[in-house]
């Protein structure tokens, strides 16, 4: 595939002329925003740059308009000439919006009011005085609001109310005190990119209908392969609907590499295949085996050490056992950043074993791949460059809005050979441009969402150094949390030592349990502590953190930090809240 070149498409450092911190740039941006968006441009400028950069006529953020029948305008012109003049949503429906005749004015007014709702939600997401969650039990929420679908259309006033209600009950995953999942935070540039992607509303299967997005996918995947360590960024890849699908792609391609006939003849034409992964790996490996007809019994779980890392000697032992039984080992999936412990398997040792037995090496770096952006932490993935394929989810540690997952493959052309079906109504061979840019035939999907633009635009805005600072900060916050609780009364660490990633795993032991011997009764009672505290957190809405059992370990808290908005004070608050909510248990 020919390179689209450098300049606009590349990730090279910029001269700073587009820096939003530059006052001249800020004012220019505001002028453009006002010209094309009316009053909403004033409001957005006030939010981004403060009163000093806010045009004099701006009135700041207005309350939601869905409760009023008429769209309120933001201009001071008399007579009013803005798009909202004379708009009454109570008498308008979706059929009055574009492409309806004379639909431009109501469309602009409606979308500006939707934008008001979204911007208020964005601002509240970073406000520590607001709740992370307004929790209701499912039956309560079903009864409290009419979610049903009707035959007749509702007016636009009601549609705006639905937008407000939906966000009212949404979890503020960008809130600095949301520590519940691996994907947290709300990046403003990524959010803007997501809005643009939805506006473009195109498909990723051919260059002819997604020219810029296809080029950006090419550029971005190449850059990611360079960072992995493959010479010149060579190889292939694709953005998929999440890490589970990326892992399944790896399994699919590894099987095809060893037995290409399976594409036409199916599993009946190949021997019993065996995959290997650690006992702490993601469940998607077994799901992929089930979906591909390999079977979950053909996924062998390798023992881990006390920190959750795969034990290479056990991997080699299980490979030899499988071969002695006449089975064919075809894939080893090592994990760089396990879901619970945040552990990094010893990739160099795993690579040596895979080379020795000629087995495809996959690295599931969905959670840990972001550390490759950090000079301080990338050593934890030493050996990843020897993998045949890598899963990397920028929507996790790098803070890209969901969803954004990449499968990177070292051998170019293999993914195309494995998956292509050459549908003549999409992939005509006599098109007038370079057909290598029609990338859809290497995907399992036909319809494929544009996931790359969020990552590309954030990369342009932050640079590699910006992602590095983001990741280093989150790792530092995890070490700060560990340093607070490792010797604090009422806390027990699940494993010894500093966290490898931002996963910090611990038990909170209420005063009533601290005097008990470490026996079965204590463990039984301790297992109930985390679920009760989590339930109270959600009902108060103050914070959220995950818990789970693992192996013979009863329920423990797992704090994960990927939101750069979090601070030391938020970590302090979390600890104090756990103690407040759990001291009476």
Automatic annotation (TrEMBL):
GO process terms (BP): gamma-aminobutyrate shunt; gamma-aminobutyric acid biosynthetic process
Ranges for region Disordered: 1-25
GO CC field: cytoplasmic vesicle; cytosol; Golgi membrane; presynaptic membrane
Keyword Ribonucleoprotein: no
Keyword Ion transport: no
Function in brief: Catalyzes the production of GABA.
Protein name: Glutamate decarboxylase 2
Source species of the chain: Lipotes vexillifer (Yangtze river dolphin)
């Amino acid at each position: 595939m020919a390179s689209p070149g450098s300049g606009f498409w590349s990730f090279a450092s910029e001269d700073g002329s587009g820096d939003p911190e530059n006052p001249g740039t800020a004012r220019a941006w505001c002028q453009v925003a006002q010209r094309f968006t009316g009053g909403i441009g004033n409001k957005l400028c006030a939010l981004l740059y403060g009163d000093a950069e806010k045009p004099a006529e701006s009135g700041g953020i207005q309350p939601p308009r869905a409760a009023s029948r008429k769209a309120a305008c933001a201009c001071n012109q008399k007579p009013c000439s803005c798009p909202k003049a004379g708009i009454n949503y109570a008498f308008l429906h979706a059929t009055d919006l574009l492409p309806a005749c004379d639909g431009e004015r109501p469309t602009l007014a409606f979308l500006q009011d939707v934008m008001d709702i979204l911007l208020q939600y964005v601002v509240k997401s970073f406000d520590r005085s607001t709740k992370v969650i307004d929790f209701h039990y499912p039956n309560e929420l079903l009864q409290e609001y009419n979610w049903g679908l009707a035959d007749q259309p509702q007016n636009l006033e009601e549609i705006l109310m639905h937008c407000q209600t939906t966000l009212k009950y949404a979890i503020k995953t960008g809130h600095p005190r949301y520590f519940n999942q691996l994907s947290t935070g709300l990046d403003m540039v990524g959010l803007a990119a997501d809005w643009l992607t939805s506006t473009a509303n195109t498909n990723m299967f051919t260059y002819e209908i997604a020219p810029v997005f296809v080029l950006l996918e090419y550029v971005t995947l190449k850059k990611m392969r360079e960072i992995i360590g493959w010479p010149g960024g060579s190889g292939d890849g694709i953005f998929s609907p999440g890490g589970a699908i990326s892992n399944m792609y790896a399994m699919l391609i590894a099987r095809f590499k060893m037995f290409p006939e399976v594409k036409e003849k199916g599993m009946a034409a190949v021997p019993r295949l065996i995959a290997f992964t650690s006992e702490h790996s993601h469940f998607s490996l077994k799901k992929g085996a089930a979906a591909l007809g390999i079977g979950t019994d053909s996924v062998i779980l390798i023992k881990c050490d006390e920190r959750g890392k795969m034990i290479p000697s056990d991997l080699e032992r299980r490979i030899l056992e499988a071969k002695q039984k006449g089975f064919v080992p075809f894939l080893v999936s090592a994990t760089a950043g396990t879901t619970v412990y945040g552990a990094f398997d010893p990739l160099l040792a795993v690579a040596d074993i895979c080379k020795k037995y000629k087995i495809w090496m996959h690295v599931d770096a969905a959670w840990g791949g972001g550390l490759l952006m950090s000079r301080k932490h990338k050593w934890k993935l030493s050996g990843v460059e020897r993998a045949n394929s890598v899963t990397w989810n920028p929507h996790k540690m790098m803070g890209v809005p969901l969803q954004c997952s990449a499968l990177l493959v070292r051998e170019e052309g293999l993914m195309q050979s494995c998956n292509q079906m050459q549908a003549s109504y999409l992939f005509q061979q006599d098109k007038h441009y370079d057909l290598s840019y029609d990338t859809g035939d290497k995907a399992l999907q036909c319809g494929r969402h544009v996931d790359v633009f969020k990552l590309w635009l954030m990369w342009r805005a932050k640079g590699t150094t910006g992602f590095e600072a983001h990741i280093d900060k989150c790792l530092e916050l995890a070490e700060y949390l560990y340093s607070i609780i490792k010797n604090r009364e009422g806390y027990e660490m699940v494993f010894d030592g500093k966290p490898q990633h931002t996963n910090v795993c611990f038990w909170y032991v209420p005063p009533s349990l601290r005097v008990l011997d470490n026996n079965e009764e204590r463990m039984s009672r301790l297992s109930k502590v985390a679920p009760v505290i989590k339930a109270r957190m959600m009902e108060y809405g103050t914070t959220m953190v995950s818990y789970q059992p693992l192996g013979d370990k009863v329920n423990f808290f797992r704090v994960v930090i990927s939101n750069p908005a979090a601070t030391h004070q938020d970590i302090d608050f979390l600890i104090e809240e756990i103690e407040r909510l759990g001291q009476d248990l």
